[in-house]
Design the sequence.
């Protein structure tokens, strides 16, 4: 897994885009106390469920892998 040049900014963009996507679908309403990791995992699972992104292998799922996959998704938006 090659680290992206501006992955931190892309992860922030992915959270914003994912939140907007989930709100538009009417399935997500994040609280102020929700952590970034919880948001990232929920957004990842929602996008996989909707077949927007390809899922990771079950044994490869980690916070770092989810962040990387969502950063790639955000870079293409």
Sequence:
């Amino acid at each position: 897994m090659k680290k992206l040049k501006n992955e931190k900014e892309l992860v922030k963009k992915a959270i914003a885009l994912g939140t907007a996507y989930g709100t538009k679908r009417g399935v997500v309403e994040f609280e102020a106390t929700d952590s970034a990791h919880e948001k990232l995992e929920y957004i990842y699972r929602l996008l996989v469920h909707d077949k927007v992104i390809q899922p990771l292998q079950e044994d490869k799922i980690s916070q770092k892998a989810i962040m990387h996959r969502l950063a790639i998704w955000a870079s293409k938006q």
